[in-house]
């Protein structure tokens, strides 16, 4: 198996090494045979070479099974094309998966008393290849347009993916849309509804503005949510409020044969180089990669090690802590080693944190 390692820009260069250290531990301990493939893309490369990502980079990424990605700085320049959009489209990574599941103990750490962690367990499934991120644009001095593309094929594909997740959970799906104003959303809504019904999944729908309110006020009402590209982008970032910090939000971009894992946060140039960036989202993105690879035990170990960091208050300043990126990463790795040696998570993945 080949895994592309893309640190990217800003704090990506600080958080990805902490995730890679955990990957290295398992790869070396259990002889997984994962070949790490370093790939440079992003603003730094664009500044140096004039190109943020090349055809050769895309070819290299296509040769990998998984991608672990840090962050990209996007600049206000018409000639700078989105690296992420290009990778998602050219590798056909059509399903963006963003779990909203608080780490045990995070509400106590942050002194959040008006919520219950048990009420929050949502997966937002975002169609990742079209919508307002179609890339079909005309930019002018006094008028600019972006074409919003919704197709039945892509809508059915993402609905089927979301139904697969729903079938493993509570067997219910919520379609989020704005079909009362955006008539293209009627196709998305109807296709998702028909797909869910054909698969025996209980389906409901919500207008995006009402859902945004409900997501924060009544998250217990939702389980698996499927929506279009832009709505999914915004809503999943909003959902980070329920996690306690966007520095705790992981994500996956899934295709038929490849998968791409990244923290939701950006490159955060304001704190880049200071050693205070939260590595947990990157580490939980690695956990999602382990899940995709079928390495459920290792994913459990990582999850529990992260929970231990929250429990012991070994956290970065965004969570009120005093520890550096590396100190948090080192602590989590030490817990992974400890739990692995003790066969923690081997028999009962829900065992009380030790």
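^ Assign residues to that structure.
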């Amino acid at each position: 198996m080949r895994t592309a390692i893309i640190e990217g820009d800003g704090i990506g260069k600080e958080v990805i090494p902490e995730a890679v250290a955990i990957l290295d531990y398992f790869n070396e301990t259990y002889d997984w045979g994962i070949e790490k493939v370093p790939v440079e893309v992003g603003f730094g490369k664009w500044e140096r070479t004039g190109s943020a990502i090349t055809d050769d980079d895309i070819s290299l990424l296509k040769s990998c099974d998984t991608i672990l990605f840090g962050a990209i700085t996007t600049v206000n320049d018409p000639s700078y094309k989105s690296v992420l959009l290009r990778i998602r489209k050219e590798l056909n990574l059509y399903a963006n998966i963003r779990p909203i599941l608080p780490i045990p103990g995070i509400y106590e750490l942050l002194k959040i008393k008006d919520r219950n962690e048990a009420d929050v367990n949502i997966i937002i499934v975002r169609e990742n290849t079209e919508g307002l991120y179609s890339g079909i644009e005309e930019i002018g001095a006094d008028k600019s347009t972006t074409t919003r593309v919704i197709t039945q094929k892509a809508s059915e594909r993402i609905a089927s993916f979301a139904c697969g997740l729903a079938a493993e959970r509570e067997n219910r799906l919520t379609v989020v849309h704005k079909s009362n104003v955006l008539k293209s959303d009627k196709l998305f809504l109807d296709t998702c509804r028909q797909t869910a019904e054909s698969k025996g999944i209980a389906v409901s729908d919500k207008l995006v503005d009402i859902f945004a309110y409900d997501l924060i006020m009544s998250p217990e009402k939702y389980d698996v949510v499927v929506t279009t590209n832009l709505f999914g982008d915004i809503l999943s970032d909003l959902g980070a409020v329920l996690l306690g910090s966007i520095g705790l939000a992981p994500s996956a971009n899934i295709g038929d044969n490849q998968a791409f894992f990244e923290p939701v946060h950006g490159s955060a140039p304001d704190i880049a180089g200071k050693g205070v960036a939260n590595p947990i989202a990157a580490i939980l993105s690695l956990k999602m990669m382990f899940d995709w690879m079928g390495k459920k035990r290792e994913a459990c170990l990582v999850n529990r090690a992260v929970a231990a960091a929250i429990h012991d208050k070994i956290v970065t300043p965004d969570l009120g802590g005093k520890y550096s990126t590396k100190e948090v990463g080192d602590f989590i790795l030490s817990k992974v080693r400890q739990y692995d040696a003790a066969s923690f998570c081997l028999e009962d993945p829900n065992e009380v944190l030790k």
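The chain has two domains: 1-94+246-354, 113-243.
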